[in-house]
Design goal:
Elements: H1 6-10, H2 12-44, H3 49-63, H4 67-77, H5 87-112, H6 116-124, H7 129-159, H8 171-182, H9 185-242
Helix pairs in contact: 2-3, 2-5, 2-7, 2-8, 3-5, 4-5, 5-7, 6-7, 7-9, 8-9
Length: 243
C-alpha cells in the first residue's frame, strides 16, 4: 500500500478549524460543568436530604450513561417537544451536563479535604468568614481539585469526538470529511491521532504551568496564615504559663 500524506498538508486549514472548535466546545463545557459541579457538590453536602438525594441522582444518572446517548436525547429527542437545537448548542449542552456529574465529585472531594480546625484557627486569628474563604478554604480546595480538573479537561477534548455524530464540526468531523473525498483513511486518521496527542499534551502543559504559578501564590499566602496561627498559639501558651 502506498502512503500519501500530501492530502493532510492540503487539508491542514480544515483540521486547524476542527481543532479550534474542539477546544472551544471543551472550554465552554468545562466552564459550565464547573458551575454545575459547584452547585452539585454543595447539594451533596447539604444537611437537607432532598438536596443530597437530587445531587446523588444527578451524578449517578449522567456519570453512568454514555455521552453519545445523552447527545442523541438532546439533539433528536427534544424536537419531539418542540425544542429544536442546532448541533453546536446540543453538543455544548450534552458535554456540559455530562461534565457536571464528574465535576460535582471532584469539587466535593476538594471540600471534604478541608478540616474544620483550619477554619476555626483562621477565625481565631481574627479573620472574617470571607477572609477565611479567600486565604484558607479556597486555596486548599484549589490545590486539591486543580490536577483532576486538568485531567477532566483533557477527557472533554477527547470525548468531544463522539459529537461528530450529531454534526459538530470538530476535529473528528473534519477528518471524516477529508477521508470522504480523498479515500485516504489510514493517513487521515493516523494524522488526527497525532493531532489529538499534540493538542492534549500542549493543553496539559499549559494548564499545569498556569496552575503552578497560581498555586505558588496561594501557598505563600497560606504559609503566612499558618505562621500567624503558630504565633497566636505561642502567645496563648505564654499567657497561660504566666497566669
Amino acid at each position: 500500500m502506498d502512503l500519501y500524506f500530501g492530502v493532510i498538508w492540503r487539508s491542514l486549514p480544515e483540521f486547524l478549524k476542527g481543532a479550534a472548535q474542539t477546544l472551544y466546545v471543551s472550554s465552554l463545557a468545562m466552564g459550565g460543568g464547573f458551575l454545575i459541579g459547584l452547585v452539585g457538590a454543595l447539594a451533596r453536602r447539604s444537611r437537607f436530604s432532598i438536596f443530597r438525594g437530587l445531587g446523588t441522582l444527578y451524578v449517578n444518572l449522567f456519570r453512568n450513561t454514555p455521552l453519545l446517548v445523552q447527545a442523541y436525547l438532546i439533539y433528536f429527542g427534544l424536537p419531539s417537544f418542540g425544542l429544536n437545537l442546532d448541533s453546536f448548542t446540543s453538543s455544548v449542552l450534552a458535554l456540559t451536563i455530562n461534565n457536571g456529574g464528574y465535576m460535582t465529585e471532584i469539587i466535593r472531594g476538594g471540600m471534604n479535604a478541608i478540616h474544620k480546625n483550619e477554619v476555626d484557627a483562621a477565625i481565631a486569628l481574627g479573620m472574617t468568614y470571607l477572609q477565611s474563604l479567600r486565604y484558607v478554604i479556597i486555596p486548599h480546595i484549589f490545590r486539591v481539585v486543580y490536577p483532576p480538573m486538568v485531567s477532566q479537561f483533557v477527557l472533554l477534548i477527547l470525548g468531544s469526538s463522539v459529537l461528530a455524530l450529531i454534526g459538530l464540526e470538530e476535529l473528528t468531523f473534519k477528518a471524516r470529511m477529508v477521508e470522504a473525498y480523498t479515500f485516504r483513511a489510514f493517513e487521515v486518521y493516523l494524522s488526527v491521532m497525532v493531532m489529538y496527542v499534540v493538542l492534549t499534551v500542549m493543553t496539559t502543559v499549559l494548564l499545569r504551568v498556569i496552575g503552578w504559578r497560581a498555586l505558588r501564590g496561594t501557598q505563600v499566602r497560606r504559609a503566612n496564615v499558618v505562621l500567624g496561627m503558630r504565633r497566636l498559639l505561642r502567645h496563648v501558651g505564654k499567657s497561660f504559663y504566666i497566669s
